[in-house]
Amino acid sequence: MPELPEVETVRAALEPVISGQVIAFVRLTRADLRWPLPEYLDKRLVGQRCSAPKRRSKYILIDLSNQETLLIHLGMSGAIRLYNQKPNFAKHDHFSVELESGQWVVFSDPRRFGHLDLFASAATPTHPLLSVLGVEPLSDEFTDRELTSLMRGRKTPIKSALLDQRLIAGLGNIYVSEVLFRSGISPRRKAGTIAGQRAVRLTEAIKAVLSEATSAGGTSLRDHIQPGGEIGYFAQNLCVYGQAGQPCVNCGLAIKHIIQSGRSSFYCPSCQR
DNA sequence: AACAAGACCTGCATGC
DNA sequence: TGCATGCAGGTCTTGT
Questions:
Q1: Where do the CATH 1.10.8.50 domains begin and end in chain A?
Q2: N or C terminus: fewer CB in 10 A for chain A?
């Protein structure tokens, strides 16, 4: 489900609810999601005080008072919901936390591509899933020069390169199509040809689209829902994703759908070169 | 080393 | 109605 804007939306909703709160009870109904969960995850969490949740790429990180950090990834279909009292649990509610405030945080994930882990907060190197991540696209370190240097020499299509989390960490399939549309770049263009003004336009588009989508609460198509039950409103701002055959908002030509590295790409063959 | 395809899993829409 | 097929917002692993 979630790309950076959806995960940031979840993180922000979690913040006022869990910051400073102590975990009173954990309901764990599976021993594995994508991978086996840490042993005694439930017991290790009870009694811990949570700090404000942080985000790195599509991961949510919660530092605990025992110097461990809870890592959460929502995979494709994961969602977190908040309740003011004990909810009626559904089929795929695999992991739920009751806080001392009486509020409940429920993690549900039908496809189970998501993941939970616990690791020492001060671990160096850090968690292996985090250590391979590339630059955070909304940070000041991500500039057109950095983008150019990351893409230099790459023969893979720019679409595929932007999905590679080791280069830029946080974009997913929806927003890659959108940022390429906004910067007028074809998803088929070789990544290594991104430089100069093209790199400037693409960098600006990445920052703008991710920021706007975050402000809108993300994109709700199938699975994404904000923790409070609200949908995200960026779907109405999508120019190309899922718009195959529809007229381009710029030129009116039909939006095209192709498969690259096994994943859908949408673009305007006239506006994007 | 870089890249593409395969794998993981469930649910839903579509078409026969 | 039932069944097969294909597709879905991710990413690690395997194979070329």
A1: 144-267
A2: C
A3 classed as catalytic: yes
pLDDT tens-place string over residues A19-72 = 999 999 999 999 999 999 999 999 999 999 999 999 999 999 999 999 999 999
CATH for A144-267 is 1.10.8.50
For chain A, the straight-line distance linking the first and the last C-alpha, in angstroms and rounded, comes to 28
Question: Residue range A232-252: average pLDDT?
Answer: 95
Its pTM stands at 0.97
CATH 2.60.40.10 at A4-131, yes or no: no
A188 catalytically annotated: no
Other C-beta atoms lying within 10 Å of the C-beta of residue A10: 27
Give me the A residues in range 163-222 that sit within 7 A (CB) of strand C. 163, 165, 172-174, 218-222
Pick the catalytic residue: A11, A55, A58, A182?
A58
Element spanning A71, H or E: strand A68-73
